[in-house]
Amino acid sequence: MKTPAIPDGHPQRSVKKQIFLSVMVLLLLLSATLLVIMYGKGYRIFVQQGEPKVTKTGILNLTSSPTGAQVYVNDHPTTTTNGSINLTPGKYKIKIAKEGYYDWQKDFDIKREVVSDAEATFFPKAPTLQSISTFGIQSVFIDPTGTKLAFNIASNSARKNGIYIFDMTARNFPVLAGQSSATQIADDTGVDQFSKAKLNWSPDGKQIMATVAGPTGNTYYLLNTDGLNQTPQDITAIYTATLEDWKLQRDDKEAARLKSLKPNVQTFAKDNFRILSWTADDNKILYQASHSAEMPVFKKPRLIGNNHLYERRDLKEGAIYSYNIKEDYNSRIIDTIDTLCTMYDPECSCSEPDSQEKCTVPFTWFPDSTHLLYVHEQKIDVVEDDGSNLTTLYAGPFVDNYVFPWPDGSKLVILTNFNNANVPPTLYSIGLK
Where are the alpha helices (DSSP H) in 99-214? Predict the structure, then answer.
């Protein structure tokens, strides 16, 4: 039996075919990899004047709380949160909207191959209002940690009248005064009326100084905040020394904060900042410009992706600013306001109980450290720390200066009697989530 003859050149053609296929597969893989890289860098195909063109884009990340909001790019509905979109370089007006909440809007300057972030926090148009105390309250003060409230009750029996501490991180909400969610630390069963005392928190939030007025002068007590003080400690003899010690503690903390800044930032801040408050993480400073000046750029090169459309490095004396230390980003919140007196100002005496109410500032950092509460003209506004998205949260009656954010940002606490002169004011919460 004869073996079939193999045509000349067949093995060579097979090898060439395999090589050709391998090269083609390799080229396809390289092309796909190149396309993925180009896509990741923001290259997209757009049709311009009827012709497809490959254009390098920037990426805008879109997030919102709550999620599932409609995104408008230059007033055109484009996508929803959370996600990202590619945009050709240029300036855009971005609006993020969700039913039942105030719209969020900001301008962006999109750069090639740069990722920018649009982070919308929504606040309800119709927040819930709920009573969280059952008795009339004289005055309220928040502790340095922003988690506890101290207040006086004077409309009940002597045993239940006095000073209370309410821990806003406690779970047993909403019923407050006289219940387990509030801790009574002093009552009116003794000689002194603690229900009418002036209150002042210690720098660490573990003690309260109560100033009780009497016919022969003031008596000062130091109260622990973890339970009822059966025998309140009279510190009248060492009152001045205690205040000085507390002031020293505050000064030391402030000095440590300033020392954490770079030397050139320290110098500029000392010369031009009247510090109003710091965020809880000490990464941002709210301040009033003590002089008109031009703030130099301290961090070079600038961080890529920051939205510099809202940056203001021209300081105007008396205006309020927010400074982001890590990002070296400075924003103007509002124009000139009257000179403010705070515990950070050495010329003020805000650490003294009798002057505490006079030294309140209309701005308070919101717990997320990206918003500020602005209390003015019988309104409670919230504004982003770059001065954008000023929104009125509440415009009803409340007692000035007694507005406090809940530690997780879910509520505000206000003191109000809804303009009913026959009823003592009490605490209410304004639900924001």
Answer: none
